[in-house]
Write a sequence for this structure.
């Protein structure tokens, strides 16, 4: 599957740790940053794929599950460490659920918002994969 778990550089200190994102930590230029918070534990987020954009999901606080599908395989990744990020490359369907109380999901994207880059219906996603060389 077109995903990768990335360990963020961590500076450990008795006063608290720092995770750093700079230079070549992620394999793309950052174009957009946003975060999900106050998500009810019964809610789902995501429910789409990107044609070109890459995204790095980081659990700043709490935990949540990421359901991933590439048209052939399915995988669930639980994110619960703020120094571990999930890189989701193009053409991977994602759904986020099972949010713990107080969880915050930071998303770092390779592109600015572009509705044309989104595929928001799973059946359309499967058709897109079959039509993509």
């Amino acid at each position: 599957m077109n995903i990768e778990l990335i360990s963020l550089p961590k500076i450990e200190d008795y006063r608290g740790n720092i995770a750093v994102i700079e230079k070549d930590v992620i394999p793309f230029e950052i174009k957009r940053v946003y975060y999900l918070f106050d998500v009810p534990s019964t809610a789902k987020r995501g429910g789409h794929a990107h044609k070109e954009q890459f995204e790095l999901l980081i659990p700043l606080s709490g935990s949540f599950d990421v359901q991933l599908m590439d048209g052939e395989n399915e995988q669930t990744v639980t994110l619960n460490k703020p120094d571990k990020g999930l890189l989701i490359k193009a053409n991977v369907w994602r759904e986020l659920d099972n949010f713990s109380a107080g969880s915050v999901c930071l998303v770092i994207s390779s592109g600015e918002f572009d509705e044309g880059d989104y595929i928001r219906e799973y059946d359309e996603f499967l058709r897109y994969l079959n039509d993509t060389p």
